[in-house]
Design brief:
Blueprint lengths: L9 E5 L2 H4 L26 E5 L5 E5 L13 E2 L15 H15 L3 E5 L2 H4 L10 H16 L3 E5 L7 H7 L6 H17 L5 E3 L10 H4 L6 H25 L4 E7 L2 E4 L4 H23 L6 H7 L14 H7 L4 E5 L3 E4 L18 E2 L3 E2 L2 H15 L3 E5 L17 H19 L5 E7 L19 E3 L11 E3 L1 H11 L8
Parallel strand pairs: 1-5, 1-15, 5-6, 6-7, 7-8, 8-10, 9-11, 10-14, 14-15
Antiparallel strand pairs: 2-3, 2-4, 12-13, 16-17
Helix pairs in contact: 2-4, 6-8, 8-11, 12-13
The structure holds 6-O-phosphono-beta-D-galactopyranose (BGP).
Length: 492
């Protein structure tokens, strides 16, 4: 079966502001929760740096799925001897013209980026949006339009103005719903006529803790209360977006790198079904517009009585129904396994002995992507959008800065072939594919620079030193050819 994709299939790349954009204090941008997060590595987890009322500084592990609770009385601070990667990131803020030209050079038809909430509402509570902040994204969109690349905007990618985290405990408060909807409305009024595809949140099923959700406590009731408030905020935003932007399409993005049962022992298979529901809880509620029947079981697993313990307004049920998503967006990088008795991995698990291991321990599983695409569509029956997929690797540039990244080409060739099979053979409706991340940027989980994903090398090291020069890698020309042939060349 041919690997050529349907004519209107969107090809592109994805980035997140605090890993890519930099310019953290430009045009009145306010501080965001990730601005206080240090760099790290697999051996030395990232930290949030905080000061206690008695003057003591504390370092709290901020890592993605393993964040430590932040004491209510702690205040985030910048320490002179620490490096905070989000401040400069790889400086898209000053390189956007050059970077978008490079994306256009590959033939991108879509570019997924996130808007920094605190660039539009610096502390989250202002009455009017920051005009200069809007202007920056106007410039970005104008540049995209020049090359006929359409934007796919992530309204909120794992962060919030730090003021809202400190004052309201982030998403655990319903106040965040009101402020988020106000922010989204400002984006719709300003960019609505220029953007059709929107994502309300990034990897909402993995979001927890101070960095991604502004909530001081990372687990238990607070986490699921925050999730409920995000569901309601997303639904209100979808409804509003449909009203303000005719023809607009809304998704939320889920981390759906999958996990298989370790064996065919019924106990392992059942355990796996239960733990995967921890992710489906998020997809089902937002994709179908109501909480699934197994919701109480999930909550009980986290020490919560059930939905009855989550604070809801009487109108919330109707809101969820009215604000269902138009499509399901997801990230897929790898797969893992789990067995009965393991703790629930909502993203992750043990290594699969049948899979080749890639750097950072990720199991290479292209068929798992096809499996996941089918699984989502079978369940929700709404179009899907693959908005993150890619391989982090240590690239070794030659004396001219050129990287021969055959390993990345191999990864993408296999994954894109699996995408084509899901579309052409299994008939899964898929809007497009945005590779993470077309230009090298800072890793979310480790804060490193050496975990590179791009088609384009950026001359910068783990501590932010370097010329920031952009140099296309071997995979750049390869991807250009794949896009030119609309996937047909995947067979070559
Ligand atoms: C997802 C995030 C991205 C991105 C990606 C790769 O979880 O949505 O922001 O960073 O994973 O992960 P990492 O950067 O940790 O390698």
């Amino acid at each position: 079966m041919t690997k050529e994709l349907p004519k209107n299939f969107l090809w592109g790349g994805a980035t997140a502001d605090f890993q890519y954009e930099g310019g953290y204090a430009e045009v009145g941008r306010g501080p965001s929760t990730h601005d206080y997060e240090t760099n790290g590595s697999p051996e030395h987890p990232r930290h949030h740096t905080m000061k206690m009322p008695n003057g003591d500084t504390i370092n709290l592990k901020s890592s993605f799925l393993d964040a430590e609770d932040v004491p209510e009385e702690a205040k985030p601070v910048w320490l002179k001897d620490q490096y905070y990667p989000s401040h400069q990131a790889v400086d898209f803020y000053h390189h956007y013209k050059e970077d978008i030209k490079l994306m256009a050079g590959m033939g991108f038809s879509v570019y997924r980026f996130s808007i920094a909430w605190s660039r539009i509402f610096p502390n989250g509570e202002e009455n009017e949006p920051n005009k200069e902040g809007l202007k920056f994204y106007d410039n970005v969109i104008s540049e995209l339009e020049k090359y006929h690349i359409q934007p796919l905007i992530t309204i909120c990618h794992d962060e919030m103005p730090v003021h809202l985290a400190l004052k309201y405990d982030g998403w655990s408060s319903r106040k965040a719903i009101e402020l988020y909807v106000k922010y989204a409305k400002a984006l719709f009024e300003h960019f609505g006529s220029r953007c059709k595809y929107w994502l309300t949140f990034n990897e909402i099923n993995a979001v927890r803790g101070f960095g991604p959700s502004g909530v001081h406590k990372a687990t238990g009731l607070k986490r699921y209360q925050a999730a409920h408030n995000m569901f309601v905020a997303s639904a209100k935003t979808v409804k509003l977006g449909h009203k303000l932007i005719p023809g607009s399409r809304f998704g939320t993005m889920y981390a759906l790198s999958t996990c298989y049962p370790a064996t065919c022992k019924p106990e392992d298979v059942f355990h796996n079904q239960q733990e995967l529901r921890e992710n489906w809880y998020f997809v089902d509620t937002m994709g179908r517009g109501y909480y699934p029947r197994y919701a109480d079981e999930i909550l009980q697993h986290h020490g919560i009585e059930g939905l009855s313990e989550i604070k809801m307004d009487s109108a919330d049920q109707q809101t969820l129904k009215d604000g269902q998503l138009d499509f399901i967006a997801f990230s897929y990088y790898r797969s893992n396994i789990s067995k009965a008795g393991d703790k629930w991995f909502n993203v992750g698990g043990s290594a699969n002995p049948y899979l080749e291991k890639k750097p950072w321990g990720w199991g290479l599983d292209p068929l798992g992507l096809r499996y996941t695409m089918n699984m989502i569509y079978d369940r929700i029956q709404k179009p899907i959008f693959i908005v993150e997929n890619g391989m982090g690797a240590i690239d070794k540039p030659d004396e001219n800065g050129f990287v021969e990244d055959d390993y990345r080409i191999d990864y993408l060739q296999k994954h894109l072939s699996a995408v084509a099979d899901a579309i052409n053979i299994d008939k899964v409706p898929c809007i497009g594919y945005t590779m993470w991340a077309p230009i090298d940027l800072v890793s979310l989980s480790t804060g490193e620079m050496k975990k590179r994903y791009g088609f384009v090398y950026v001359d910068m090291d783990d501590l932010g030193h370097g010329s920031l020069k952009r140099i296309p890698k071997k995979s750049y020309a390869w991807m250009k050819h794949i896009i030119e042939t609309n996937g047909k060349a995947l067979d070559d």
